[in-house]
Amino acid sequence: MTLPPIPAHDPDFAPHPDGAPHPDVPPPDGDWMVEAIDLVKTYGEFEAVKGLTLRVRRGEIFGFLGPNGAGKTTTIRILTGLLQPTSGVVRIGGHDLATDSLAARAITSLIPDTPYLYDKLTGREFIHFVAGLYGTPPDVAERRMAELLDVFDLTDRADDLIEGYSHGMRQKTLMIAALVHDPKVLFLDEPTVGLDPRSAKLMRDVYRQLAARGTTILLSTHILEIAERMCDRIGIIDHGELIALGTMDELRHLAAHHATLEDIFLELTGGSAFAEIARVLE
Amino acid sequence: MSVGAEGEADETTAIVPDGASGATGPARRRRSAFWWLVRSRWTIFWNTIARGARWRRLTYGIVAGGLVVICLALGVLGWGLTSGLKLATTLDLSAADIAAGVDPRSATDVILATAFSGAMLLAVMVGFTVSLAALYLARDLDMLLVSPVSRRAVFASKLLGGILPGFLLVGVITVLPLIGHGMANEYGASYWAALVVALVLTPVLPTAFGAVAVVFIVRRVPAHRLGEIVGLIVVAMTLAIVLLLGSANRLQETMTFQQVMAYLNRARSPYSPAEWLTRFLAASGRHDTATALRWLAINVGVAAAALVPLYAVSDRMYQEGWLRMHSANLRRVVRRGILWWQRPERAADLGRPSGLLARLPAPVVAMIRKDARLIPRDLTNAAQVLSPLAFGVFFVIQQLLYPLRIGGGESGTVYTQPVLTMFAAFVATGVASMVFSRVALTGISVEGKRWWLLRSAPLSAFQLVLAKFLVAFLPYGVLSGALILLFEGARLVRTAVDADMGLVAGLALVHVPSILYAWFASLVVGAGVVAVSLAVGAARPNLKWDSPHEMMTPDVGCLSILFYGAYAGVTSIALLLPGAVGGFPMLAHPWAFWLAGLTIGLGTTAVVVGGSLWLAAGEVPFIDG
Lengths: 282, 625
Prior knowledge:
heterodimer, A: alpha/beta, 6-stranded mixed beta sheet, globular, B: 75% helix, disordered N terminus
């Protein structure tokens, strides 16, 4: 089943015929921190991302939902410069990622789903290394790091080699490293994977505070509850296309007979398949 | 279905993969699981060869061909040595010896002992490492140990996997020499039958002891750390053997063949398993059945004494070691006793341009200092560069023992001194190039799964390439300079000793301008070598592996050597030749010689370094991590 286009909740966010914001609408007051316009990424014959267009405001938490293989991670990798799009434009804080890449990357941070770090560095060294990559002065980095280590309860382990860290500690180390240079835009790929409930809650609180301070957050997640509770707006991607976009209220309004995001998500992305699986399992 | 902590549950609930469940007891189920695991391992091995990439199959083919050649050569050697020794012994026998029935073939037992000792030494070196890898570091271990398959079956199948490489080594080292030995001694069927038994037994004991040691040590030391340490020890032992073999040609100048054999005979020990096998095989060859059986029993008994109790308690110990390995990740791993610049309190230096690096951008400094900490901390990296370094050590020793001479030993003359200094620079450049071309070649690949971090950071492709270039080039400069000083120092010390000169007089032989120019030339060549290697590594990165051995595929390694070898050959000659012969009086226009050399050397290097870094920077945006 295909839902009709979601009306824009913002006058500046004019609806596009296929449900995405219109690419030609200029930013209201230069407030768009992430702009992806007609992004296409192909691997040979396979189109991983098909003309995806979206914009995210300053201080907004944007949730990116979609089933496995829908194109979420590919899109985030394009937005962070890890992958080059086949065509399309990406602007971060107004900087074109193709022509002004360094300026765009200087104001972003990425936290991938799997925290691959340098095992033979200590946590403190890793954070200083990342601060160095972003040109953060060591004294500023030291001050911020001390605060963040305290917040994430890692101070006692900061001088241990990362090879002795658990998954959650690695994720926290990555989070601290990502925040130590005070990014304007934060990309999170499955941010709560492998975290215990307490750490997951801590992360959510931190993201909320960051957004309140004006940091733009774009996260992809499979956990619909996180998207429902945290995100200001949600985009649902399937087969490389953005098939729905809006606030929770807009999505509910759109699908009046569905109360939860899970219902909306399943309907949009092939709920009948899930029902079939459930039937077989019974 | 549950798996008990002590392993009882898998005795009663183990899956029998061949479908024979229900009709058999635990022992049969365990055997069935064992063979199923062995078959699976064989399928994986066969698929790796049959369905692997063409270059991989080609590599296996070349290795197999090389082994055949080595086997044949060793076979001829075994036959020749045995025949020669038997003949010499026969000629030396007195009438009394002949009357007493002394068998000249007994003198040739030293060949057997040497072959078995060599095979066992290699089996010990490989056995421990392979046992460690097979028993604790295999990637499928987690899956197997939590599945309802008997852990004893897993242990036994993994141990067999550890023993098989030992069999291969034993085969290469001993089969043909021992066949040659038997033929030369005209031994009968009993020798050939005993030979099969001896070959089967040879790797069992070292592997069994290796497995016992591994199982016990892993109870104290995390397996991954142990693997790094053992890798380093094995490389060091290999180098020691290579150095000893390198000195063998010097040995033959001072000792006769029979003296060497007598020396090897004295080295035989009745407590060595190699000696037990020697006595078993020699007695079999000479139809001394009682002696043969006695030594066979000792061999089998000791191997069984090591393996049977281990197998009996393998369930519990294997489980404990495995659990310990996992829990080791949760324990505090603090490294405070490391090099001074790596100390945690110096962590802030990672992002602070200072000292030599003061003028570089902060991201480049962060990259350089990050690698400067990571590379020495990972012992697998150290193992990689040990073999080229061994050449350097070997050359220093050679300079001390047998210094290079030109013109009848007058190495201190004004004409020959620069030639020898430039030659030392040539060797130093070669050694330093071999070490740091590897560092440059794997500079990008070593980032592995952390590549995303660099690509998403505000670090330009050129900054990244520059950082990786400096990571290899700065230590290259230190090493090449140190090696030139060492080579020159060793040669001059020996020259001073030979000439009965004092230390001060010996130091007066040092020609500082020559040494400084030699270092300059070495630095120039090194810059090109590092840049070329970096470009090849950037063009063919391999971010999917964690070990430096796996990062460098054979094609990349060969390409790199080909490119940098050609470049280094041209520039070394262009730069070092004027330094070596520029002072010769027969040269009409030495300045023209210098000019040509410097122009070719510096010009080529400028083009190669600039072009390589430009190419590498062009590749970086297209590397998908």
